[in-house]
UniProtKB/TrEMBL annotation:
Pfam families, A to Z: APH
Domain of life: Bacteria
Organism this protein belongs to: Azoarcus sp. (strain BH72)
Protein name: CHK kinase-like domain-containing protein
Signal sequence annotation: none
Record-level Gene Ontology MF annotations: ATP binding
InterPro entries registered for this protein in UniProt: Aminoglycoside_PTrfase (IPR002575), CHK_kinase-like (IPR015897), Kinase-like_dom_sf (IPR011009)
CHK kinase-like domain span: 88-257
SMART domains named among the record's database cross-references: CHK
Keywords, comma-separated and alphabetical: ATP-binding, Nucleotide-binding
C-alpha cells in the first residue's frame, strides 16, 4: 500500500491540477507492474510503470525503447521518469494484445495474416538498425544458462526426476549441439519475447505496438521469429508458419539482412533456435509455478512441449533429447500429441 501511495503522489506532481484514477493495466513475470491512468476530463489515458528499484532497473527499458523507436518501431513514449523511485509515465498503446485479437473470430479472413505482416515489418526494421556493441551479447554463457533452467526447474522440480549420470552426459552433449547451431547464426538486435502478449493491436493505428523489450540483446536472427511463430500462447498450422517464414526470408534478403542464402539452412536455424527457446520456456514456466506461485503458465506447457518434440523428431541429432522427453512424459509416447 505504501508503494501505491508513493506512486499516486508522484503522479499528482507530474499531472498538477488534473483529476485521475488508477487501475491495473497488466503485470508480467517480473516485479514490474503497470497501471492505466484515466482522467476525469475524458483525455487520453496514460500508463505508469512501477518498477521497484530494489528489484528492477528502468534504464535498460529506456535504452532499448530509444533504439527501437529510432528504428521505426511503435513503442511507448516516455512522458516523465524517476529512476530513483522506479516510476515511468508512458503513452498508452491500448489494452488489446495481438493474442486477444487473434483469439477473436475474424470477420476478415486475411486479418491474421495482415497482423503478422505488420509484426514482421516492425521486426525487420529493428533488425536493420542492428549494430554490435550496443546491446548485451546473447552469448554462449547466456544461452547455456537459459538451457540449464530445463534440468533444474522442469526435470528436477516439476517432474521430480533425478537424471542418471549417463542422462546428464547425454543432455550436456545435446546442449552443446544446440548451442553450436545457435551461435553460428547471423546476429541482430533481438527483442527476446516478440510474441502475441507483447504486441499490441491498435485498430486504425500503427501496428503493432511493442512492449516488454527491456531484455533485448544482440543475438541470433531467428530468435524473435521463433517467439512470434512458435508462440507459447497460440498455435498456428505449420503451413501458415512456413508461408510467413518464407515471406520474411524473401523480404530479409531484399533488405540485405544477414539471413542464410538457402532457405533450408535458414529454416534449420529457426528450428534449432526453437529447441533452445522451448527448453528455456519450460524451465521458466516451471519456476514461475513452483517458486513464484503463478500457476497460470502450467496450461501453456503442453503446447511448448509439442513444439519441442516435433523439432526433435525432425532432426536425428536431437534423438537423444527426444528419448529423454519420452521418459519424462511417457503418456506422450503412448497416446500421441494432444494438439
Amino acid at each position: 500500500m505504501q508503494r501505491l501511495e508513493q506512486l499516486q503522489s508522484w503522479l499528482a506532481a507530474q499531472l498538477p491540477g488534473r483529476a485521475f484514477s488508477l487501475a491495473p493495466a497488466s503485470a508480467d513475470a517480473s516485479f514490474r507492474r503497470y497501471f492505466r491512468v484515466s482522467f476525469d476530463d475524458g483525455a487520453n489515458s496514460l500508463i505508469v510503470m512501477d518498477a521497484p528499484p530494489a528489484h528492477e532497473d528502468c534504464r535498460p527499458w529506456l535504452k532499448v525503447g530509444d533504439i527501437f523507436r529510432a528504428a521505426g518501431a511503435h513503442v511507448p513514449d516516455v512522458l516523465a521518469q524517476d529512476l530513483d523511485l522506479g516510476f515511468l509515465l508512458l503513452s498508452d498503446l491500448g489494452s488489446t494484445t495481438y493474442l486477444a485479437t487473434l483469439q477473436t473470430p475474424a470477420a476478415d479472413p486475411l486479418r491474421d495474416a495482415h497482423l503478422y505482416a505488420d509484426a514482421l515489418g516492425t521486426l525487420a526494421a529493428i533488425q536493420a538498425a542492428s549494430q554490435p556493441g550496443v546491446l548485451p551479447e546473447y552469448d554462449r554463457a547466456l544461452l547455456h544458462r537459459e538451457l540449464m533452467l530445463f534440468p533444474e526447474w522442469y526435470i528436477a522440480r516439476h517432474k521430480g526426476v533425478t537424471l542418471t549420470d549417463k542422462e546428464r552426459a547425454t543432455l550436456d552433449t545435446v546442449f552443446e549441439r544446440i548451442l553450436a547451431v545457435n551461435l553460428a547464426e547471423p546476429r541482430v538486435f533481438v527483442h527476446r519475447d516478440y510474441h502475441s502478449r507483447n504486441l499490441m493491436h491498435i485498430p486504425g493505428g500503427r501496428n503493432p505496438g511493442v512492449i516488454d523489450f527491456q531484455d533485448a540483446v544482440y543475438g541470433p536472427i531467428t530468435y524473435d521469429l521463433v517467439s512470434l511463430f512458435k508462440d507459447a500462447y497460440i498455435r498456428w498450422d505449420e503451413e501458415f508458419i512456413l508461408d510467413l517464414l518464407i515471406r520474411y526470408w524473401e523480404m530479409a534478403r531484399t533488405l540485405k539482412l544477414p539471413v542464410r542464402e538457402a532457405f533450408d539452412d535458414f529454416h534449420r536455424d529457426f528450428e534449432w533456435m526453437g529447441v533452445q527457446r522451448h527448453l528455456k520456456v519450460l524451465g521458466i514456466f516451471a519456476r514461475l509455478y513452483h517458486r513464484d506461485g503463478k500457476e497460470g503458465y502450467l496450461k501453456d506447457m503442453p503446447l511448448v512441449m509439442d513444439y519441442l518434440r516435433r523439432a526433435c523428431k525432425r532432426y536425428g541429432e536431437l534423438g537423444p533429447l527426444l528419448k529423454l522427453l519420452d521418459r519424462l512424459d511417457p503418456e506422450q509416447v503412448e497416446f500421441g500429441y494432444t494438439f
